[in-house]
Backbone:
């Protein structure tokens, strides 16, 4: 092995079951071939998401006992506020129950009808909240992000030239904010470089447009900067993370990822106006501004998670390298994956894996269902189903990328589990020609991927 074992050991375990092949076939059929609709008890290894699926530390569990459940001014809120300030560097913090709630408040505070939001690449809920405000979303990611086989270090980067042209064309008043997502999820968990963040901020500042980062996976992005960007090799990840924040006016965070908790989120900013606005809104939509939809104990676990993730570089280094190792097993066996491997997940290129299926038969959705049938491993579609439809024209957004995400929860699975998953997927790859596509039989109006149903064609 070319990297160290995890910097933690296992203190408590949870039983999992492996259903028989016929059991899996009926479970996935009943779920309408949508892995979101599977029951957790029918899943052996759950790689659906890294969101809220982390194992907390003994220190975080101990923190749960110290919940101050006062309605207002809970001690745990001040601990959270201090942790965010120390680690991310923002003085103003608004807690929310999870990431999309922070996005909701940010969209309400910043977006007027007809205004644009420029992003490296959308995330489903981030775009939804902007569109609900009558805003128009524009992706400005570098072109190589759309090529799964192109091995570049920072495929999450903004295309600065295109962004500049768009600002010129639209005019600054037509742009609500620039949203940069660290370790861009929909692009395959691909990082943004420090240089790109700096260039983006310079451009935005010239036109007085605020830059808001989706910092949900900014820690993992910071690790990639250390590993790949010249000049940062010797800097602790903690410092890199804080430096990234200098190039933003604020952040929205789903704490269910980097921050190592099962629920929670926040937004943070150094801009007083954004703070005042969102602090007023949080009371309407989430709860008082000193709990924002979280219990005191949840805030304590979160405050501790934020500090723990940057205590030293060992945790994040192991985390990212474990995902890379898993991707390596698949790549070596010839399975088409997105390269380089992202920070939180390995993405299968379903267009290549199931090259005999047209996109109208949902190759990524099909592959995700077939992986479950093969080895009881749960994954997620990230392709044309997730891309959804334009709210006005109802036309499909379409998606150049047709991916299946195998997302690795933090501190939950050993390499044995991931090895088993890789073996199942390699076996499936060998008989890929036998896999039939899907037809959609039920389509929800918004965020359709969560609840859509399918049948085999
Ligand atoms: N931003 C990013 C980049 C995300 O990945 C997510 C959630 C959110 C915002 C929303 O946060 O779930 O706490 O409300 N991503 C999960 C995933 C659902 O599986 O990738 P939330």
Residues:
């Amino acid at each position: 092995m070319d990297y160290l074992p995890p910097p933690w050991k296992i203190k408590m375990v949870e039983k999992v079951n492996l259903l028989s092949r016929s059991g899996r076939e009926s479970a996935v059929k009943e779920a309408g071939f949508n892995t979101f609709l599977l029951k957790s008890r029918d899943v052996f290894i759950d790689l659906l998401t890294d969101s809220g699926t982390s194992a907390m530390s003994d220190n975080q569990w101990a923190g749960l006992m110290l919940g101050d459940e006062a309605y207002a001014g809970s001690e745990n809120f001040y601990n959270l506020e201090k942790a965010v300030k120390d680690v991310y560097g923002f003085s103003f913090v608004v807690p929310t129950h999870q990431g999309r709630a922070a996005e909701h408040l940010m969209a309400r505070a910043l977006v007027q009808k007809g205004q644009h939001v420029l992003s490296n690449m959308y995330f489903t809920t981030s775009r939804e909240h902007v569109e609900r405000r009558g805003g128009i979303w524009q992706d400005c990611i570098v072109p190589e992000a759309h090529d799964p086989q192109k091995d570049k270090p920072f495929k999450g980067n903004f295309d600065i030239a295109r962004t500049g042209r768009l600002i010129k064309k639209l005019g600054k008043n037509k742009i609500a904010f620039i949203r940069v997502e660290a370790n861009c999820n929909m692009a395959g968990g691909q990082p943004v470089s420090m240089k790109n963040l700096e260039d983006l901020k310079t451009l935005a500042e010239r036109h007085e447009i605020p830059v808001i980062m989706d910092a949900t996976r900014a820690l993992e992005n910071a690790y990639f900067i250390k590993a790949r960007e010249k000049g940062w090799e010797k800097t602790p990840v903690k410092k890199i993370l804080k430096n990234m924040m200098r190039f933003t006016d604020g952040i929205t965070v789903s704490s269910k990822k980097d921050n190592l908790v099962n629920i929670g989120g926040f937004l943070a900013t150094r801009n007083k106006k954004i703070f005042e606005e969102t602090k007023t809104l949080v009371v309407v939509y989430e709860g008082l501004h000193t709990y924002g939809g979280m219990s005191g104990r949840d805030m304590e676990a979160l405050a501790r998670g934020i500090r723990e993730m940057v205590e030293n570089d060992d945790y994040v280094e192991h985390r990212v390298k474990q995902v890379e190792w898993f991707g390596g097993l698949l790549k070596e066996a010839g399975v088409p994956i997105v390269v380089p491997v992202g920070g939180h997940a390995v993405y299968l290129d379903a267009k290549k894996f199931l090259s005999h299926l047209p996109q109208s038969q949902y190759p990524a959705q099909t592959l995700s269902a077939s992986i479950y049938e093969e080895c009881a491993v749960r994954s997620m579609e990230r392709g044309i189903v997730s891309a959804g439809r334009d709210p006005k024209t109802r036309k499909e957004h379409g998606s150049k990328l047709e991916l299946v995400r195998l997302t690795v929860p933090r501190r939950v699975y050993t390499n044995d589990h991931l090895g088993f998953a890789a073996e199942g997927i390699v076996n499936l790859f060998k008989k890929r020609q036998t896999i039939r596509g899907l037809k959609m039989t039920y389509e929800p109006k918004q965020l359709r991927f969560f609840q859509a149903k399918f049948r085999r064609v």
Q: What stands out?
A: The first strand starts at residue 45 and ends at 46. The chain has two domains: 21-50+313-456, 58-309.
